[in-house]
Design brief:
Number of domains: 3
Distance between the termini: 49 Å
Oligomer: single chain
Structural class: alpha/beta
CATH superfamily of the largest domain: HUPs
CATH topology of the largest domain: Rossmann fold
């Protein structure tokens, strides 16, 4: 049974969805004022994999990932460039899709934009005012944290010890330093919308509450994001959402660990801040996915050239094993009896069970990856041209399921012409017969056709030259 570590209870819990057979999941998306960076990529990739696994497990998943398209950073950049905030958002949403598609991140069920949900936010704020959980001051509206006794339960913060100057901006309009803005009064050179309190714009926290409840209901299963969002963003979401509904908001809170760059916290001031666009100029997208899945999601992850080299080598091992299987199946042909080796099938099944066990253990991708490489070892050491085609097909299907859940080996391979395949198969047979002269002649023939044949411990590999 799937277990998830719940940030709110600080323990693993059996996953029991709100609605049987269905999962509602929300992951905080990007603020679209720039290209998203490698730290953002981690939750985007991870929650893509979690969603895939939930679907593989038989759930119908409604996955919501928002675009924050109004906030201070967006306003500042739009003003510098002399364009509207909407134009800036449109531009970087397009750029998000370029990078997300390159990384193999599937589109969510819904990608709501904050600016398209003003009525939902205003309705939510009005109800909080009616219930005495918020107050208006100078055209702005603030959530009054002392009016919500459970404030701090998600992050476990001891609020009495919080230094208001260190953790929140001091604002003379606030009744309490920890109060946060639900609605901000209009200022010069800022976009604004009509509201019962005058023109203004929403606060950041209210956006996610309104959008998540609009598509998933007043209580849903999983809400996730980076560890940096735990406080105050998600804490404030809990307070305003549960204050609005009077009942629990989210059943399972999930937070991924930070990414460090060469064992140092990523920071623009340190010059070690990289966008995904910059990273993909040097590395293959699936190498990045491989790195992101190599550690448990709650653990910190180090991004470095050495780690990327390891990720690339690991992905290469997966690719080589799959190519070997494909070659063995092709060599078997239609004349090979479609029978199965029950002992081998049992071993493959046990490996896939260990893969599922890893994922059921709080989405432990590192543990599941270990099972995937058990399959690679089995393919490379136990399967050859004496193995029945049915067994080879079962191994390939298991590998496709596991790598598919990770979003790996999904990039289309270049089609190898049939003539080239036939010559390569003849060369493989010549080598098996130890006919080196014929093998060399066939290699030259492949070269004339623009292909090279590389002999590896896992078999012959073809590459276009």
């Amino acid at each position: 049974m799937l277990q998830i570590y719940n940030s709110q209870t600080r323990k693993k819990e059996d996953f029991i969805p709100v609605r049987e057979g269905k999962v509602g999941m929300y992951c905080c998306g990007p603020t679209v004022y720039d290209f998203f960076h490698i730290g953002n990529a981690r939750p985007f990739i991870l929650f893509d994999v979690f969603r895939r696994y939930l679907e593989y497990s038989g759930y119908k998943v409604t996955f919501v990932q928002n675009f924050t398209d109004i906030d201070d950073k967006m306003i500042d950049r739009a003003n510098r460039e002399g364009i509207t905030v909407r134009e800036l958002g449109d531009r970087f949403i397009k750029e998000y899709w370029k990078d997300a598609n390159a990384l193999g991140i599937r589109p969510a069920t819904v990608h709501p934009r904050a600016t398209d949900h003003m009525p939902q936010m205003i309705s939510l704020i009005q109800r909080l005012l009616e219930k005495g959980l918020a107050y208006e001051q100078g055209g702005s509206v603030y959530f009054h944290t002392p009016a919500f006794p459970e404030y701090g339960k998600l992050s476990g913060q001891n609020l009495e010890d919080l230094d208001s100057g260190a953790r929140v901006n001091v604002d003379e309009e606030k009744r309490n330093p920890l109060d946060f803005a639900l609605w901000k009064a209009e200022k010069p050179n800022e976009p604004s919308w009509d509201s019962p309190w005058g023109r203004g714009r929403p606060g950041w926290h209210i956006e996610c509450s309104a959008m998540s409840m609009a598509y998933l209901g007043e209580v849903f299963d999983i809400h996730g994001g980076g560890q940096d969002l735990l406080f105050p963003h998600h804490e404030n979401e809990v307070a305003q959402s549960e204050g609005f509904t009077g009942h629990p908001f989210v059943n399972y809170w999930m937070h991924n660990g930070f990414i460090n760059i060469d064992n140092t916290k990523m920071s623009k001031s340190l010059g070690n801040f990289f966008t995904v666009r910059e990273v993909l100029n040097e590395y293959e997208p699936e190498d990045v996915r491989m790195l992101m899945l190599s550690a448990h999601y709650r653990s910190p992850l180090n991004f470095s050239r050495d780690m990327m080299a390891q990720a690339r080598a690991s992905k290469g091992r997966l690719k080589t094993a799959k190519e070997r299987l494909t070659h063995l199946l092709r060599a078997a042909g239609s004349s090979f009896p479609d029978t199965k080796d029950e002992k081998a099938l049992q071993a493959i099944g046990e490996i896939e069970n260990r893969f599922r066990g890893g994922m059921d253990n709080d989405f432990n991708t590192a543990e599941a990856m270990g099972a995937l490489f058990e399959l690679v070892y089995f393919i490379n050491t136990e399967l050859d041209d004496s193995v029945p085609a049915g067994t080879l097909q079962a191994a390939l299907a298991a590998m496709d399921r596991m790598t598919g859940l990770f979003g790996l080996l999904t990039q289309s391979e270049e089609e190898i012409p049939e003539e080239v395949r036939q010559i390569a198969d003849q060369r493989a047979q010549a080598r098996k017969d130890r006919d080196w002269a014929r093998s060399d002649a066939l290699r030259r023939k492949l070269s004339d056709l623009g292909w090279s044949a590389e002999d590896t411990p896992q078999g012959q590999k073809l590459r276009r030259t």
